[in-house]
Amino acid sequence: MRSKWIEHEGKKVFYQDFSRQIYNSTAVKAELDEVQKVVLAEPRDSVLVLSDFRDTSVGSDLLSSMNAASTATKAYVHKTAVLGVTGIKRKLADLLTALTGQSLKYFDDIDAAKAWLVQE
């Protein structure tokens, strides 16, 4: 698993690393399965998530897996910041948000994303 816990300003953030997986939906699905297990082991409404999709192709083949994972973990996630979602990926992410009701905030800069996650 590439994803890991990181710390920012004294708070624990779960960095979900889906980056650099251009056209590798198998690797993204495998990582998604692993991160889902980690999130579900945490208390409800407690997890600060930073999902990194930079240089990763997200197509309709991943939408059902992402929808299922998001639905399953929604109650455990407090906030989600997403990196690398632009263009068609943004349209798919907006669709995912509409389907699951899980709010996502998009960033181009990792430091801005981390700062937003830890602010209350």
Provide an overview of this structure.
The protein is α/β, with parallel strands linked by helices. Helices cover 44% and strands 23% of the residues. The chain is built from four helices and five strands. The chain has helices at residues 25-40, 60-73, 87-100, 110-118, and strands at residues 4-8, 11-17, 47-52, 77-83, 105-107. It has a five-stranded mixed β-sheet with strand order 1-2-3-4-5, with helices on both faces. Helix 1 packs parallel to helix 2 and helix 2 runs parallel beside helix 3 (87-100). It is globular and about 35 Å long. The protein starts with a strand and ends with a helix. The relative contact order is 0.19.
Record field, number of beta strands: 5
Strand arrangement within the widest β-sheet reads 1-2-3-4-5
Task: Give the ordered list of helices and strands.
Answer: EEHEHEHEH
Helix count, DSSP H or I runs of 4 or more residues: 4
Low-confidence stretches: none
Portion of residues within helices:
40-55%
Distance between the termini: 29 Å
Strand content: 15-25%
Give the C-alpha Rg.
Answer: 13 Å
| Mean pLDDT across residues | 89
Strand count, sense and barrel status of the largest sheet are: 5 strands, mixed
User: Which geometry do the CA atoms define?
Assistant: globular
Helix vs. strand class = alpha/beta
